[in-house]
Amino acid sequence: MNLTGREIVLGVTGGIAAYKSAALVSRLRHLGANVHVIMTRNATEFVSALTFQTLSANPVVTDTFQAPEYWNVEHVALAKLAEVFVIAPATANIIAKMACGIADDMLSTTVLATKAPVLLAPAMNTGMWTAAATQENIRKLKDRGILTIGPGSGMLACGDSGDGRMSEPEDIVKAVDGILNPRKDLQGLRVLITAGATRERLDPVRFLTNDSSGKMGFALAEAARDRGAEVTVICGNVSVPVPDGVRTIRIESAMDLYEAMMQNCGDQQIIIQAAAVADYRFKEIRKEKMKKQAGETCLTLELVENPDIAKATGERKLSGQILIGFAAETEHLLENAEKKLAKKNLDMIVANDVTREGAGFNVDTNIATLITREGQTEMPLQSKRSLAEAILDKALELYSAED
C-alpha cells in the first residue's frame, strides 16, 4: 500500500473506540498520507485533541467557530481537500445526522459538504446497532453511495457481546487504500462463492445445522466485488448482511445447495466453496411438529448422507476453472485437508483448525493454511477480509497459470 501525498479527512466521534482512531492516524501517516482530524466535542472526552494533533502533524478541528489556521471557511476547505472522508468511530448519532442531513457541528457540516467518497466505521452497543432506526439510517446512507466497514462482533466495552465493535485500524487502512488505489485485477472474471450454514429439517420447527455465520464467505464476496469481479453468492443461514453489489441465491439445505451449484458452476471461472455443509440429512422430514412420547427416554432418528458438493463440482470442472474449498478441522488438520484437495479435484484448499482461538466459525478473524499441489502457505491470525484478499491473490495466480 502507498498513500503518499493523499489527503484524508478523519472524523472522530464520541465513542470508546476513539482510542483505535489514534492508531488509524498513525498507520495512515506511516503510509505517507496527510491526515486532517475533525473531532466532535464528545470525542474529546475520550481522547485529547493533542493526541491527534501530534500523530497527524496537523491542527485538529474541534469547534465550528474556532479560529482557522488559514484564512478560509474551514469546513468547506476540508470538504474540498478530502480525497476520502473517514468517520471512525461512527456512532449511531452521527449516522442518524448524516441520514437526515443535519449539520450542527464541524464534523456533520463538513461531511455534508464533501464530494469525496465517505467511509463509515460504525461502533456502538449491539442494541443500538441492531435498532430499526440505525439499520434504516444505514440503508439510506448506502443507497446514497456512502461506504461502510464493519462493525465486527465480540466483547463490547459495556460488557455485552455481539455486533458493534469498530473494525480494526489495519482493515480500515486497507479499505481506504482500496478506495484511493482500487485493484481491478479480477475485472471481467466471474466468481462464485458459497457461504453460511445449511439447515437439514426434521420438522417445521427443528433442524440440524452448524455454527457457520457466513462471515468468511461474505468477506470473500466483498473483496472479489471490490476487485472488479462479477460475483455470485449462494448462501444458507447467515448472521451478517449479504454484501451489496453481488448476485445472491438463497438456499436452506445441502440438497438446495447441490442443485444451485450444479445450475450455476458451469459459467464461473473461480469457484470458492466456503459454506459449511451438513454431511447428513434426516431420512424422513416430518410435516408436523414431532411430539414427545410419554415414557420414552431415548429417541432414534435415521440420517442419510448428503451428496459431496465439492466433489461433484470437481467432477464437472471445466478447463481453466479454479476450484477452491475449505477444510474446517479439529484434528490432523493438514493431513485431512490434503486428502480433500486430491479427492475433490481442487486447485487449493483453505485449512483451518476451528478449535484455535481467533479461528473458525462466528468470529471476525481466522488462522489458515493455503494448500495447493505445489505447497503450503501459513496465514497468521488476521481479519477474515485480509485472509480473503490473500485467498483471491492465490486464486488469481492459479487462474493466470492456467491461461
> What does the overall shape look like?
globular
Q: How many strands?
A: 19
Output the CATH class name of the largest domain.
Answer: Alpha Beta
Number of helical stretches of at least 4 residues = 13
Strand order of the largest sheet: 12-11-8-13-16-17-18-19
Overall helicity? 25-40%
CATH topology of the largest domain: Rossmann fold
Instruction: Supply the CATH architecture of the largest domain.
Output: 3-Layer(aba) Sandwich
Strand portion, in percent?
15-25%
The CATH superfamily label of the largest domain reads CoaB-like
Biggest sheet features: 8 strands, mixed
Keywords:
Rossmann fold; 2 domains; eight-stranded mixed beta sheet; five-stranded parallel beta sheet; 19 strands
Structure description:
This protein has 403 residues and is α/β, with parallel strands linked by helices. The protein folds into two domains: 7-180, Flavin prenyltransferase-like (Rossmann fold), CATH 3.40.50; 190-284 and 301-402, CoaB-like (Rossmann fold, 3-Layer(aba) Sandwich), CATH 3.40.50.10300. The protein has helices at residues 18-30, 49-56, 74-81, 92-100, 106-113, 126-130, 132-143, 169-180, 215-226, 254-264, 309-315, 333-343, 384-402; strands spanning 7-12, 34-39, 84-90, 118-122, 147-148, 152-155, 161-165, 190-195, 200-203, 206-208, 230-235, 247-250, 270-273, 280-282, 303-305, 322-329, 348-353, 365-372, 375-383. The strands form five sheets. It has an eight-stranded mixed sheet, sandwiched between helices. A five-stranded parallel sheet has the order 2-1-3-4-5, with helices on both faces. A two-stranded antiparallel sheet has the order 6-7. Helix 12 links the parallel strand 16 and strand 17 (348-353). Helix 1 packs parallel to helix 2 and helix 9 packs across helix 13. It is globular.
